[in-house]
Amino acid sequence: MAESGIGFLLVLTLRGFLVLSEFSLVNLRYSEVNEATLADLRKHPGISRLLDNLSRAGEVIRLGRKLCSLATGVFLFMLFKNFIVSGWLALALAIALGVLAQVLISDLIPRFLAGNNPQKCLRSGSWAVFVFWVLGWPFLKIQDSLRGPLKKWTNQESGDALNPLDVEVQLRAMGEDSATIDPVVRQILSQTLQFEDLDVQDILLPRNQVVIIDTTKSLKENLEEARQAGHTRYPLCDGDLDNCDGIIHIKDIFRFRGDWDHINFDNLKRPVVSFSIEDTLAEVLPKMMRYKVHMALAKDEFGGVVGLISLEKILETMVGEIQDEFDHEEKLIRKIGRQIWRVSGLAPLHDVEEELAIPDFDDDEVSTFGGLVTTEFGRIPKQEQVIEFRNLRVRIIEADDKLVQLAEVQKLEKPADENLEQA
Questions:
Q1: Burial grade of 91 (CB within 10 A; 0-12, 13-18, 19 or more)
Q2: Is 374 left (phi over 0), alpha (psi -120 to 50) or beta?
Q3: What SS3 state is found at 205?
Q4: DSSP strand pairing (295-299 vs 274-276)
């Protein structure tokens, strides 16, 4: 009986140290910690290892907490069954008191302490994490071996998308400060968590829609095209995007002192960077911020330029569409009847899939609905042409010699047996 009580207290204490370490890591990760403090913490080899392996540390802590929770229940059951005849009653009491003890003793108190002094608490509790790092080694190895087959089964190619310290723990920490999360914050948080799944192709502006400063044209022609487009940045090219030599900011032209007829764009251009269409936005965003660029080229696997990406588009994937007083509000997908929509050719494929509640198009070659329709036609269609594919009937409403601008899309009751094209 005494052994059970001592075991219960030891396991409860061990769980408390795990929670102490867990929330100390969260507070360090999400608070402004000066370099001197971090350097001091890293003098401790164990803490340095935790900070360098946060993803694994989160997995170890979750495993340790689960094992401790199970052990507290077992010790309490063994304690109660000695003086309670009914085994079911002993089990119920063990579960109830075990949960209560964990919440009061090994949850609330460690969280409070970690919030006040995370550095000191991490030094005090990190040993518990390494206990389970060693004891849980077989479980973690089994988990790692199952992760590959599970990714193949679920068609996931990337590594661990999320750190448990970033999601599970941080959401709980946010919940402590506010009982309810503002809808705007909730939406931004949800979109940010999906950020890892997006790549350059998801925000690509196709090359046939890019307005450039063309060195083969006169300044008057370039300024007129820039005026009609209304953008602030333009690629400086010799004929087309494949010969891009820099980025021109429109304000640099207006700041030019002298005769505009003698403007040398080479003196005004800013560096241009490029990314592969397969690069994830999580990789691209920090690089663009480090390079201090707002616009970059997107290239395919052969090195050809397929379009542009912008910092604004990347940010919009997290906070929603950003518009200023000069932007024209345009709904890219609008329902006009039962199972009928008006869809802009610029609408991203993933938005079309979500709005129409249809399976993924699974087309890696294009990112917009207009590009998909053009691919299905085999050429840029003309106005009023109709095509049926993938359980959709698409009628072209507006199109020019470069792209599909607007289409009417109807979901069919039965899948189309084959592509049907009408003049």
A1: middle
A2: alpha
A3: strand
A4: parallel
- Superfamily of domain 202-319 in CATH is CBS-domain (3.10.580.10)
How far apart CA 124 and CA 180 sit, in angstroms, is 32
CA 17 to chain centroid: 32
Distance CA 277, CA 203 (A): 10
- Parallel, antiparallel, or unpaired for β 244-249 and 233-237? antiparallel
Rounded-to-integer distance, Cα 80 and Cα 85, Å? 9
Contact status, residue 389 vs residue 416, Cβ threshold 8 Å:
yes
pLDDT digits (tens, 9 = 90+) for 24-75: 877 776 665 666 777 777 778 777 777 777 777 878 888 888 888 888 888 8
Cα(first)–Cα(last) distance of the chain, in Å?
A: 87
Q: What are phi and psi of 295, to 5 degrees?
A: -140, 140
Give 59's DSSP letter. H
**What length does the chain have?**
423
Q: Which two tokens stand for residue 292?
A: 């201090």
Q: Residue 306 in 3-state DSSP?
A: strand
Cβ atoms of residues 420 and 387 within 8 Å: yes
Q: Which two tokens stand for residue 319?
A: 């906070």
Helices (H), 104-182: 109-116, 118-135, 137-153, 170-177
Domain boundaries, the chain: 2-144, 154-197, 202-319, 333-422
The pLDDT confidence band at residue 223, using thresholds 50, 70 and 90, is confident
What confidence tens digit (pLDDT) does each residue in 88-128 have? Answer: 777 787 778 878 888 888 788 888 887 777 888 888 888 88
For residue 79, give the amino acid letter.
L
Separation between Cα atoms, residue 250 and residue 329, nearest integer Å: 23
In CATH terms, is domain 333-422 a member of 3.40.50.720?
no
